[in-house]
Amino acid sequence: MEFHPGLKQRRRLIFQRQTSWRIKSFRGKKKQSSRQPYAENPVSFVSCGIMRADSAAELIAADSINTKTEVEVTETTASKLGAFEVHTKGFGSRMMAKMGFVEGSGLGKSGQGMVHPIEAIKRPKSLGLGIEFAESSAAEVRVERDQVIGAAFEKHTKGFGSKMMAKMGFVPGSGLGKDAQGAIAPLTAIRRPRSRGLGAT
Q: Is the overall model pTM greater than 0.85, yes or no?
């Protein structure tokens, strides 16, 4: 057998050219068949704008084929429109208004349905679903939360201990533990002068 270094190199170059051609042609087909990203697709909705804070009345002239009628549309204030939607920025009210809902009238085609929205009831963490409890409004819950945070023995901790105890089901004025048999008054730290040791009285 004869050794031909040029022949092997030629074969190697031909092989490299063929594979690079295949890779290029494959990449080209892949790019042509790929879809556009969703962000580049056109948007099919129109924004309604910003809700106005002041109340106003608008007259809209509706032209019909046979008659011309005027329809009065009243806008309610933003505070009334989304009074029950504190955390949703009025999304539900705007959606209902787009579908033709007028505040004060009932739901449905002829207005025979519910007039007032269903309010969410916040249940205490430690109570189960079968327990009946006195319903309180969100304002009362906030007042109770502020009272718990401002405990007299927590001047420098910003109410951390009271918050933690409230999360675990502790009610101020009752004892600690499952059956409220524990200590009622919290332990207080006594500050001693520097010159006296721990055992001094």
A: no
What phi, psi does 144 have (nearest 5°)?
-65, -40
Whole-angstrom distance, CA of residue 80 vs CA of residue 53: 10
Domain ranges across the chain: 10-35, 121-201
* b (16+ CB within 10 A) / e for 5-38: eeeeeeeeeeeeeeeeeeeeeeeeeeeeeeeeee
Cβ atoms of 61 and 70 closer than 8 Å: yes
- Contacts of 42-46 spanning 24+ positions with Cβ under 8 A: none
CA distance 31 to 4: 42
Lowest-confidence pick of 38-47, 122-131, 133-142: 133-142
More confident: 153 or 78: 153
CB 113 within 8 A of CB 107: yes
> What does the pLDDT look like over 62-104, one tens digit per residue?
444 444 443 444 444 444 445 556 666 777 778 888 887 777 7
Helices 138-149 + 160-167 axis angle, to 10: 130
Question: Distance between CA atoms of 72 and 132, rounded to whole angstroms?
Answer: 46
The one-letter amino acid at 117: P
Query: If you search the block for the tokens 């019909």, which residue do you land on?
Result: 64
